[in-house]
Write a structure and sequence with these properties.
The structure holds two protein chains of two kinds. Chain A is an alpha+beta fold. Chain A has 17 helices and 15 strands. In chain A, the strands form five sheets. Chain A has a four-stranded antiparallel beta sheet with strand order 1-13-14-15. By secondary structure, chain B is an alpha/beta fold. In chain B, strand 2 and strand 3 form a beta hairpin. Chain B has one domain: 3-Layer(aba) Sandwich (Rossmann fold), CATH 3.40.50. Chain B contains nine helices and ten strands. In chain B, strands 7-6-8-9-10 form a five-stranded parallel beta sheet, sandwiched between helices. Chain B has a three-stranded antiparallel beta sheet with strand order 2-3-5, with no helix packed on it. Classes of the chains: A alpha+beta, B alpha/beta. Chains A and B meet through helix 4, helix 7, helix 8 and helix 17 of A and helix 1, strand 6, helix 5 and helix 6 of B.
Amino acid sequence: MKTSKAVLIADLRSSPPKSSYEFSHRCADSLDAGDHLITLFGRHEKSNRHWGTIVTAVFQTAAGELKVFRGQAEDGKHYPSLTHTYPVAQIFERELWEQTGLQPDGHPWLKPVRFEGERQQRMTDYPFFKVRGREVHEVGVGPIHAGVIEPGHFRFMCLGEKVHHLEIQLGYQHRGVEALLLRRPPMALASTVESICGDSSVAYTWGYCAAVEALSNLPVSLETDLLRGIALEMERIAMHVATLNGLATDVAFLQGGGTYGRLRTAIINATQRVCGNRFGRGWLRPGRARGLTEVLRQDLIQTLTAFARDFTEINELMLASLSVKARFHGTGIVSTKTAQELGLVGVVARASGVEIDTRVQLPGRVYERFPAELITESSGDCWARMKQRMREADASVQWLLKVLEDTALDLSGSAAPDALGKPLAPETLCLSLIEGTRGPVVQVLETSSQGQLLHYKVQDPSLPNWFGLAMALRDNDISDFPICNKSFDLSYCGNDL
Amino acid sequence: MIKSILVRKSQGSQYIPDLRAANPIGFRGKPVISEAACANGCNACLAACPSRAITLDPVRIDMGRCVLCGDCEPVCPSEKLSFNNDFKLASTDRDALTISSAHPDIDPIKVSEALHKRFGRSLKLRSVSAGGCNGCEMEINALSNVNFDLGRYGIDMVASPRHADGLVLSGPISRNMADALQIAWDAIPEPKLVIAVGACAISGGIFAECNEVDRTFLDKFKPALYIPGCPTHPLSFISGILDLLGIAD
């Protein structure tokens, strides 16, 4: 049974993988038809005494349908790279090569994504781009940055104050999450999944729950899923406000910093009152979600109503501030065309005018019952990304109030079915998509003929979006990097896993 | 200008006056282990724990490993386990972090006279995330917001390790960050201290058994303070550090 339309179940017995050449051509045809590449990844495995790679790609058609292509190649084989013609594939093919060794022929920039496996601690083995010329100079920043923030290295190639190109090198946060997820029973992974990317715990855990519920045919009530929606929209508000806090602080708009800080506190403390944790941990589990008593329901309504009033007030002040306008307008522009060519997703893509939101295109029953509004901005600059976040947080408040004030719903949390020992369907591929704060969190689980988990693929929306930040910096002043970076607010651990 | 004053007015006064007396409603903090007998051969809590924090005979929870997920509570047939909202979880002693029915509280932190004298009026800290999930990092950031305002005690996060008296470590220490962590530590002038924030930094937490983690740094430099949590609650951090430095309210 499907718990949501954003979940795809594919029976692998009926569709054996094609050759890697045919796979590559089918992907190219799909991209030519305008389909959106959601993910492309590989699994290294031994079959018939030969090591090889099984490649999986998932596309979303304009009509919203999800399509799966599978390919295979023995070790040492090559296949024609897609990136050459379709830049959207660049990060996926790099990761595929890094994780399995399968070589995409003609890839313009085959550099490891996160320096995992045998490449750990060998970040100096791969050269950065070199820009030559008398006025060229380089600035290297990181992995440790000035603030309290995760590590990553940024190499700016500058002409005077202008950034000609930014090369971003990540991987410092790599903990080996995908391997870890195969070590514990598949129905008992919730707390592990919550720690993959701690600022998006709810989005990750909902995606995980949806996938294992679909794989084990575990029935879940609409109310349970609505509670998950409540958790997710609370997380979205808190994270957008945290970014706005950072943006305000970065341009010394201190009243914004102070106000957004305490507004976020109100939201995450309300989350804690529901589930015991300010980041929503422990709220969602396979088959269930913590319910709301009448007192908690009223508590959330009051918290959100008070938040909305003060949030509007500070947003108006920030948007009217000349110093904010001067710094954000026209800074770090990503055009709609660039965003589409690079396959950017989520809030960053929408701020560049790309109409893409999983909650709208694959609403599932939660967002069918209570539709999410498609919000976009057009200018693609820091200003647009700031405004996009304000508008999305506002829309989440309105959405939450609609759900919470619907007295026909019983959100008290029903008795949970025992999920722990449920077996998973054998030889099945399951993909779940949850539109978290940054964009779609993609999780793909594949089971063996005995129903064991063979592969757990996790993809943060930051993975394709980091290259967008590099493009945003081109021809901008290097001093504008902090606000560009903050306006994207991408995840380091989500990329490095 | 008028709008700015209006925001100031609705902002009101947001700081928490007595941080150690705060009451974080709903917070799943300290485990409470009752004296109820375990069902024969039962190890349900052990199986539910994602970070191997629990050991049996008698039931003990290592707060240095516990991620406060609460998954052990509903599976116990003897209803032996529960959590309250006590956030005072920090300790100067790694072994003191283990809770059982015979040892229900983490030992109170002993004030260090040496640290009080040197850092009691000013402590500057450099935060390094080494494989952290951005949970602890966001809570460390929250320490300086208008609610918690740790700066009122002269405790601040600084940008340069050269300006720091200590290092706040979050994350299990990913192998790819091990060198950078060492470089940051080496850049901090003596005398200096390490504060381990969150289950990951204290024990590796969820990621303790990952091959991608390298914890040799902590073999060389023993933390002066361990602050449990997943992520560490700002109040746990604040009460721990104030107690360590002997700072009165």
